[in-house]
TrEMBL record:
TM spans (from-to): 12-33
Name this protein carries in UniProt: Cell wall anchor protein
Sorted UniProt keywords: Membrane, Transmembrane, Transmembrane helix
Compositional bias annotation for Low complexity: 39-51, 61-76, 107-137
Organismal lineage: Bacteria, Bacillati, Bacillota, Bacilli, Lactobacillales
Highest taxon of the lineage: Bacteria
Length: 213
């Protein structure tokens, strides 16, 4: 028997099915590659922006730490566990505050007249006059004596015996003492109880000052 050729309707149907298959395959391929490109773009943009965020967070930390270093000095001291000995050591100093500001020092340098008399020039006389300006200090406190307070070793008794009773004092688990002058110059020291019941001490753990020169 002679084989009959395909009908025209079958040819059209096959062409349509073949075309649709190609379109579907191309659509899937474009969708797949498009998603890959978008993922790569997002990863690239996120990785490039991450260092900038970390840098912006690091800068304020550096600035704040440097400002704190200028304002005060402190150290870490092992604090004694709370107990009767700690309470007793702190309670014995709570009444030391005088509540009266300390007199400012009027002058810590030779008088202008005594220095001027030893020289015959007007420039020396003007220098003597400027040197007679009172230093910013009060009582036994000055910038030098403030620096001599050894954080981590100076005790409350040592500081009080050298510089007198504090003007203000508050206590909780630590002792916060402030020596202040009438013009507002002040030295503040925090004392931390350390040691054990047999050898308990209030050690200066931080200090700060304002107004001293």
């Amino acid at each position: 028997m002679q084989r009959k050729p395909f009908k025209k309707s079958h040819k059209v149907r096959n062409i349509i099915i073949f075309s649709l298959s190609i379109i579907i395959i191309l659509g899937i391929a474009f969708t797949f590659f498009g998603q890959n490109n978008s993922n790569k773009t997002e990863q690239t943009s996120s990785s490039s922006s991450t260092p900038k965020k970390q840098k912006s967070k690091a800068e304020p930390t550096t600035q704040s730490s440097s400002s704190e270093d200028l304002a005060s000095e402190s150290t870490s001291i092992p604090e004694a566990p709370a107990g009767p000995a700690v309470s007793s050591a702190i309670s014995t100093v709570t009444d030391d505050a005088t509540q009266a500001p300390i007199e400012d020092n009027t002058s810590n340098s030779p008088s202008s007249s005594s220095v001027a008399s030893s020289s015959g020039t007007s420039s020396d006389s003007s220098q003597a006059t400027s040197s007679s300006q009172p230093a910013a200090s009060f009582g036994n406190w000055s910038a030098t004596t403030y620096e001599q307070i050894a954080i981590g070793s100076a005790t409350y008794d040592d500081v009080r015996s050298a510089y007198g009773n504090p003007t203000y004092l508050t206590a909780s688990d630590r002792v916060y003492a402030t020596w202040q002058s009438k013009t507002g110059i002040k030295v503040s020291i925090v004392f931390t109880p350390t040691g054990n019941d047999d050898n308990l001490k209030l050690i200066a753990s931080s200090k700060s000052q304002s107004g001293l020169q």
